[in-house]
Each structure stands twice: as structure tokens, then as C-alpha cells.
Amino acid sequence: MSEAADTERPNGDVRRRVSKQLGRANTSRAGMWFWEVDRVLLLLAMLLIAIGLVAVAAASPATARRYSDATHIMPAMHYFWRQLMWVCLSVPVLIGVSMLPVTVARRFALVGAAVFLVLLALVPIIGSETNGARRWLDLGVSDLQPSEFLKPFFIVATAWMLSFRAKDPELPVLFITGGMTAVIAVLLMLQPDFGQTIIFGTVWLILLTISGISALAIGGLIGTAIAGVVAAYLFYDTAHTRINNFLFPTKEAALVDRYQVEMAHQTLSAGGLTGAGPGSGQVKFKLPEAHTDYIFSVIGEEFGLISCAVIVLLYAAIVIRVFMKMLDEEDAFRLLAASGLAAQFGVQALINMAVNTGIAPSKGMTLPFISYGGSSMIALSIGYGLLLAFTRRNPYLKRSPYTGRWSKG
């Protein structure tokens, strides 16, 4: 055997092993997942998570100073290190959920919806209160916000029920899903959490629209939603106060409730187009909840409005890609579940950015994958994992070697 052949064989073996592990011939669960998952959607999520870590690092000193006192001084990067821990927990959850078969993912979501609906009902009774709102369950190690976890599970459960309309349009799934949404809305208003109520209601309306209900029914539901907002303004103190302080602010409101919106706008615009630079922002130190609700404003100050525009495009790219991918989906459940999860992701981002820019009143809404928070990160990872599971496709499924073609000759 020649020396040249001797040296080429090990390289050939290495190439074959690499091809076997990373090529399309790999039939392991991880290998099949790699070729079936939408890698563009996965990349977009990883980009947002990475941006979130940088943003929390920028906001952490301001929040740490705000929550420090004479007896306890928090380290400047306290919230960054905690967010890094949550990311290390959340990314494997996202990948693991995205590997679930569609049937298993659906069952997982249905069980999750039942469990977290019960937990949501317990929040007004045994929940812990922060900043005047009772939205969390104290687990000792950390606080759990059931509404964050319920969102993706609710969407999948609603999609599953609405998918039966494809087989029997006479089934009363509209009333069943509407009743479930109403129960959740009441429980959220008791906390109070007006922002989450809007998300649940909006996504339900979007799912109904995609499921193919009549234009007359959609018009009636939109009218009912408007009437609900008016009723909330008239009879629900929290909504009344928030709307009044936003539209008709008094001097007292400007000093208290409107202060956050005003400071968010100032922080967002302080950096101009290119930003003050990492760690150079100063207005953020006057901003409440810089690491959660108003992190988009911190990004504007430190990295500029151009960076904010890039983030908007990333969220838009996720929603548009999912909806384009679902255009030729034949499974009603997968169509509804994936579209609903993408809509929830986009609506939540839109509300947060609207609050930061002063277009909407303060809602206490996190920016998906960017804001600090354990419940938010893990819940969003579960939701995005379900989205990836429902959009997975075998690229060779419709390329059967036994499919014949008519010859033109």
C-alpha cells in the first residue's frame, strides 16, 4: 500500500464519521430534529436571547442601585448574573420541548393548561404582592407567575379545540373557548393584570379568525371586546385609573403614574441614533424597572434607535416567517397552534414597545427573551419550543422516490 493511500484513509474515516453524525443520514432523535427544525426561527430566538443578556447587563447597575439601601448594597451586575442563570436553564428547555413529537407536545400543553389554570386561580388567595399587584406564587427559591406559563398552554389548548371545527363546524367550540378565556380574564383582573388580559383576549380573537368563523361573528366579538374595554373603564378601578392618567393626566398623575412613561421616553431618546455606548447611559438610573418593563428604553439610550429598529425587525421576522410557513399547512391544529404562538409572541413585544415609546399606558409587560425574569424566560422558552415543534417538517416527506411523473414525449 502506498504512503499516499495510508495518509488518506484516516482523513476519509474522519469525513465519513462527521458525515454520519451531521449529515441527513443521521436517524437519531437529535439528528432528525436538526434537519426538521426551522433553523432560521431557532437562530432568531438565540439572537434575541443574546441581545437580552447584553441589555440586562446594561440595565443591571441602574436597577441594583435603585433596590440598594443603607443596610444592603446590591452588586452592580446582580441581575445580569441571575439572568445568565435563567438563560442557562431556559435554552435546554426550549431545545427539549422543540424535540417533542406533535402528539406529545399537544398532550403536554393540555396538561400544562389545566395545571396552570388551577395555579392562576390560587394567586388571588395565596399569591405574593409586589408593587400593588398580586401576580406571583412564592416558591421560596423564586416567585412563579402562573399567567406567563398559562399563555402558551392556553393557546395550544384553544387551537386543539378550534381544530375540531374542520371536522364538524357545528361544534360549540367558540363558546367553550370563549368561556375559558372569560374565566382567565376574570382571574387576571383580580390580580390586577390588565396587560395579560389584553394578550389572552387578542390571541383568542386571532385564533378564531384563522379558524374561519364568519365575518359577522368576528364583528360581533370585536364589538363585544370594545364594550368590555368601556365596561372596564367604567367599573374597574385599575383600568379607569390607567386610562385616565394616560389620556388626561393631572399634576398628581404626572408625578406618580405617568412618571414611568415619561422617563421611558426620555431614556429611549437620550442615546440618539447610535447610543451613548455600553455602560455610558445616565438617564436609565432614573427609570423604574429598567431591567424588566422598560429595558427597550435602556437599549435605546445605550445602543441607539438603530438597535431598537433591529430588534423590531427580529420580532417581525419571527411572526412573518411562521405565518408564511403555515400558508400551505394542511393540519388545522398545527396551523392554529403555531400561528397563535407566533401571534402571542408578537403582540407581547408590540405592547411592551408601545409602552416604552409612550403610545400605550404602562402595562407591566416584559419584552420577550430580552427582559429580565425567571418565569418569563422559562415560559417563553416553553412557548417557543412548542412553536418550533409545531413548525418542524421533514424536508424529504413529499419527495418520494416512487412518485412517477408523466413524460412529455
> How many strand segments?
3
**How many strands, which pairing sense, and closed or not: the largest β-sheet?**
3 strands, antiparallel
Q: Helix fraction? A: 55-70%
| Inertia-based shape | globular
What is the overall pLDDT average? 84
Q: Count every helix, treating DSSP H or I runs of 4 or more residues as helices.
A: 15
**Cα-atom Rg, whole angstroms?**
24 Å
Order of helices and strands: HHHHHEEEHHHHHHHHHH
What this model shows, in words?
With 409 residues, the chain is mostly helical. It is globular and about 60 Å long. The chain has helices at residues 3-22, 29-36, 39-66, 78-98, 102-126, 146-163, 173-189, 194-211, 215-235, 237-247, 251-255, 257-270, 295-325, 332-356, 374-391, and strands spanning 128-130, 133-138, 143-144. A 3-stranded antiparallel β-sheet has the order 1-2-3, covered by helices on one side. The longest helix is centred in the C-terminal third of the chain and has 31 residues, at 295-325. Helix 6 (146-163) packs parallel to helix 15 (374-391), helix 7 (173-189) runs antiparallel to helix 8 (194-211) and helix 13 runs antiparallel to helix 14. Mean pLDDT is 84; it is low at 399-409. Strand 2 (133-138) and strand 3 (143-144) form a beta hairpin. The chain contains 15 helices and 3 strands.
